[in-house]
Amino acid sequence: MTNSTEEHGVRINVSQLQKSFGDNEVLKDVDLTIEKGQFIAIVGKSGSGKSTLLRLVAGLEQPTNGTLLFDDKTIKKTDASVTMMYQDSRLLPWKTVIDNVGLGLKGDWKDRALSVLQAVGLSEFQKEWPGTLSGGQKQRVALARALIREPDLLMLDEPLSALDALTRTEMQDLIEQIWRDNQFTSLLVTHDVREAVKLADRIVLIEDGEITLDLENPLPRPRDVTDERLVALEKQVTSRILEEEPSTSH
Ligand SMILES: Nc1ncnc2c1ncn2[C@@H]1O[C@H](COP(=O)(O)OP(=O)(O)OP(=O)(O)O)[C@@H](O)[C@H]1O
After folding, report:
1. CATH class of 12-81+153-243
2. Domain residue spans in the chain?
3. What SMART domains does the record tag this protein with (predicted)?
């Protein structure tokens, strides 16, 4: 799909979104517009509601209240292709790498699968079993499996947090390059503020189910994590997260 001239990306508009599980109000009145092709990172403490927001946007959960629009259409009517990448690659161990990439696809997908495997640097591994791959390679296959669907929206739920630091940096560069080549909209949930400032155009902080910071990241790409402007941005977000320690635990 990296050679495709077709336009990808979707504009997302979340308005007064609210989600409760029983008495637990997890998201309170969230408003967020993500422009087509934008890369957004959602950061925040554990339990603040990041994954819930992602799952609502992905249509895996229904909101208690509020609206969710894709290119100004309600989510039920959207034609947009939405794909998700998780911390765990979720590959089927009894299928080869290439069959995992094409899983669930109809028609002749082998050439496209090879092309996306090439884009993630794994074409030589097409006939291998997932069990023989490293954690980083498995995540590359998961990325290829997302890419073959030519996503308008790629959702990334802590996709790199189980990887070692070096592999993680390599994967960040790969994700950024693939996003730039394909221009889909990206929504990344991460605990890692450095990862957020390296990859995202905007960093959104969620605290107790509310957006409390929405920061533009104007730094040119590709970004160097030792660049003092990036370090300053990282400090700004981190200190904001740490500002208010909860007085009670629950
Ligand atoms: N299906 C569910 N049923 C009941 N409660 C849920 C459900 N999903 C999430 N929650 C609750 O919603 C709150 C927010 O969870 P969520 O996973 O969105 O947080 P998070 O910010 O992504 O946390 P983490 O960084 O630890 O993944 C938590 O209190 C969690 O227990």
Report:
1. alpha beta
2. 12-81+153-243, 90-149
3. AAA
